[in-house]
Write a structure and sequence with these properties.
Length: about 450
């Protein structure tokens, strides 16, 4: 009989406590539920932080929150489209699209199987591109219509940029878990896997120069540096892996100032092109990348032919100012600039080198890099109306017309024909000489 009496006693005590502390017990119950829910939600991040080491990565460049490199943003989110290896757009957030009204209207069908990191389904109302001259109108959750002020056939390529909600919320395999900004410049960006995917957290640190990034690697501040142009200081560094990558979306180029009295002559420009010796990188011949669907191989290739160069240039009086050239460049291209300057000097054109920190307002010849867009549209670089981005000050009515037609034509085969003509005429006129695709290096600590 003692056992039942004991149970009854405990029962009476429990009832009394419940009556006396009813409010506290109810509050505690709900707090417990909330804490349990929060623990379950954060469990993947806790496990990831405990079981996967954070990878610290250095990148060289000046970036704001609005122009973080696409290679980073691809981990965080996606665009309406994605870009294939040959520069063509393919479906991503949009399952399909249709161009109407002669390329002034694009209708995108939005997939319904993508979720934001918050758990909310992606809809047409979330697409927040801010593109000048473009109005986006959602219709329901799955249809988005883009109204363009002017026809623009490369528009599907333009909307491959990853879409982010406020707070840098995306749909990718990583979440932005922290960002440090100084002024308008991103100093550090932290990415955490959104679930238990076995991926490592990442911290990106941004440096103004390669020298700063290299020092950070030596000091142990980062475990990896991406896309270095030179690894002289790290070539023999212990316990490192070095990976070489040819960057086909960048072309190191000689830009001629066609307004210069000497370089206004097409024969002079071609003669200088034929006097460029072999350069120890993968050669480029066109402003359009060799990986592009629009690339043409039936173009003039300015190989090293010093005799032809002399014939084109003719007799220039070295003692006159017209017989001298100044080749402006940046420190990372100095070795190549010296190679070219020696060859031109031997040709009879005394060539001086000037190392710049920014693109000079006025120059004769500029050795720099051309960042090639995935679409072959190069209106910004060569159309006569583009004073700020047309570095060579180039004016050619034929080129203008081809560039205008190329960005309005919707048929891919016709566009390809237009850009074949564009490459042929531009390269023959030689406002610039396309030299090589640079080799970049990623350095990792073992």
């Amino acid at each position: 009989m003692r056992f039942p009496r004991a149970i009854r006693l405990y029962y009476l005590i429990a009832i009394e406590i419940a009556r006396k502390y009813t409010r506290s017990l109810i509050i505690g119950f709900f707090v417990g539920i909330l804490l349990t829910y929060g623990a379950l939600r954060s469990f993947p991040a806790i496990v990831t932080s405990l079981t996967h080491a954070t990878v610290r990565i250095g990148i060289v460049g000046h970036f704001t929150p609005s122009n973080i490199p696409s290679s980073i943003l691809a981990d965080v989110s996606s665009g309406l489209t994605s870009i294939t290896a040959n520069g063509s757009p393919e479906p991503e957030l949009a399952s399909q699209w249709e161009a109407t009204n002669s390329g002034k209207t694009f209708i995108f069908t939005i997939r319904d199987d993508f979720l934001w990191h918050s758990g909310k389904t992606v809809t047409a109302h979330d697409i927040n591109y801010n593109i000048k001259g473009v109005t986006l109108i959602p219709s329901g959750n799955n249809t988005l219509t883009a109204y363009l002020q002017y026809p623009y056939s490369p528009f599907p390529t333009l909307v491959s940029k990853p879409i982010l909600l406020p707070g840098l919320t995306g749909i990718g395999e990583y979440k932005v878990s922290g960002i440090r900004i100084q002024g308008d410049t991103v100093q550090e960006l932290k990415l955490t896997p959104k679930d238990l995917t076995g991926k490592n957290p990442k911290i990106y640190s941004f440096y103004q120069t390669e020298a700063q990034a290299t020092l950070a690697f030596k000091m142990g501040e980062v475990d990896e540096i991406m896309e270095l142009s030179s690894i002289d200081e790290l070539q023999d560094w212990k316990n490192t892996d070095i990976k070489e990558t040819v960057k086909y979306d960048r072309i190191v180029t000689l830009f001629f100032n066609v307004k210069d009295p000497l370089l206004a002559d097409k024969d002079i420009r071609q003669g200088l092109a034929y006097a460029i010796p072999d350069i120890p990188y993968e050669r480029a011949y066109s402003p359009i990348s060799k990986t592009s669907w629009a690339y043409s191989d039936t173009i003039e290739k300015y190989l090293y032919e010093p005799e032809l160069s002399k014939k084109l240039i003719g007799n220039i009086n070295e003692a006159s100012t017209s017989g001298r050239l100044t080749l402006s460049t940046f420190s990372q291209y100095l070795d190549v600039a010296q190679l070219i300057a020696r060859s031109w000097t031997q040709l009879g054109l005394q060539t001086d080198i000037r190392v710049e920190k920014t693109v000079p307002a006025d120059f004769q010849v500029l050795l720099s890099a051309l960042d090639v867009p995935p679409d072959p549209d190069q209106y910004l670089f060569w159309h006569s109306t583009q004073e700020r981005t047309n570095v060579s000050r180039y004016v050619n009515v034929k080129i203008d017309k081809l560039l205008e037609d190329g960005r309005q034509e919707l048929d891919m085969e016709k566009r390809k024909e237009i850009y074949e003509d564009f490459q042929r005429y531009l390269i023959d006129d030689a406002p610039a000489i396309f030299l090589y695709y640079p080799t970049l290096y990623t350095v990792r600590r073992k």
